[in-house]
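Hello,

Our lab assistant flagged a job as stuck in the queue for most of the afternoon. It eventually completed. Since we weren't sure the result was trustworthy after the delay, we are filing this so someone can double-check. Below is the sequence as submitted and the structure that was eventually returned. Let us know if re-running is recommended.
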Amino acid sequence: MKIVSWNCKNEYYKKICFDENKEKLITKENDDAEIFIIQECTYSDCIRLKENYQYVTWYGDGKDSILGIGAFSKKYELSLAPEYNPDCKFRYVIPYYFYKDNNKIYLFLVWAKTSLYCITNTNKRIPDKHCNLEYVQNVLEAMQHYNNLLNDKIIIIGDFNSGITLDNERIKHDELVKYLEKNNIVNCSLKDKLEKAPTYFHIDKYKNEIPFTDDYCFVSKNIKIESFTIGKKEIYHEYSDHLPIIVNLKI
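-- returned structure --
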């Protein structure tokens, strides 16, 4: 089966999330995909998708924006796993499940966020002491929290925000990889030697474009990785500062 994950938001087009143009682009380029996962889309984007897709889901906690993670499919219904903890301190690592040929597959949708804070009327930042994890540390602690699910067939996919700022993000990412490996979960990009290929292009204050490897898919070893590819920059970069990742799996 083919799964596509794309952070659709572009810093330069803040008012445009997952509009019809982006939908047509990603679905036309991947017309054989069975599940699409979209980070930084709105609930209204997903309402529109229900006109063409039988199964549409969206998750957002509403704590700092109207953006969340959407997923849509014509074939597979994603259901929120009963193990999901709405009071968790990590954001957004959301466990869903679906069935393929009577096999139950857990699918974690990822958009790793920074620590949560709010702004007062005097522009003072007040941190939330509960949601205080940075980027990929959210994913690591989520995997530790949902450890009882890791023995099943599992797919973990999305925007991990693993190398955006400082070296400590890379350190945390390495910790995550080691933790997953101990649980027989592997990085799909190793299949086609794309583990260091950029999926995100950050523009710094000097308007320099800095590439990062930011989007990943991990699967349990009882799922066969047939291919892992990254969308072409010349096609997607106009619409988002992320490139989609595409994975073909045999389950």
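-- support follow-up --
The delay was a queue issue, not a problem with the job. The result is valid. The mean pLDDT is 91. The two ends are 8 Å apart (CA to CA).
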